[in-house]
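Section 3.1: Structural characterization of target chains.
Under the original work plan, the team committed to producing a structural model for every single-chain target entering the pipeline before any wet-lab resources were allocated. The record below documents one such target. The sequence was received from the expression subgroup and is listed exactly as submitted; it comprises 135 residues.
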Amino acid sequence: MQCIHDKPDWPNFRWQAATLETQLARVRYHQGRLIGEMESLGFALRAEAVMDTLTEDSMKTSEIEGEMLDRQQVRSSIARRLGMNIGALTASDRHTDGVVDMLVDATGNFTEPLTEVRLFGWHSALFASRYIHCM
């Protein structure tokens, strides 16, 4: 698999607007339907749906990087982070907590600007190194 930054025209992107508009319209339609269905759920089911989505996002994000997280650790870390009671919690390691912290911030605060402080905060959560401001 070739990474996007390995392509010869990186970073000069080109796209076909008509193709993207059609796909984005379809995604937006399904997103609207999903939001409507989520609003009809009770609080407990909505919280469970959030838990499942964040768990899958955490697992897939790590898989992209070639890492396999323990699903129970991920669920427990999310539950702790969101203050949810899911029964017996599994202890989670620092790396799992870092992935969860980054995803909870990214999805829960998506309207906030992606500042240098926020980006390096994510970096610090994901990697066991210290943040050193180099400007």
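The radius of gyration is 18 Å.
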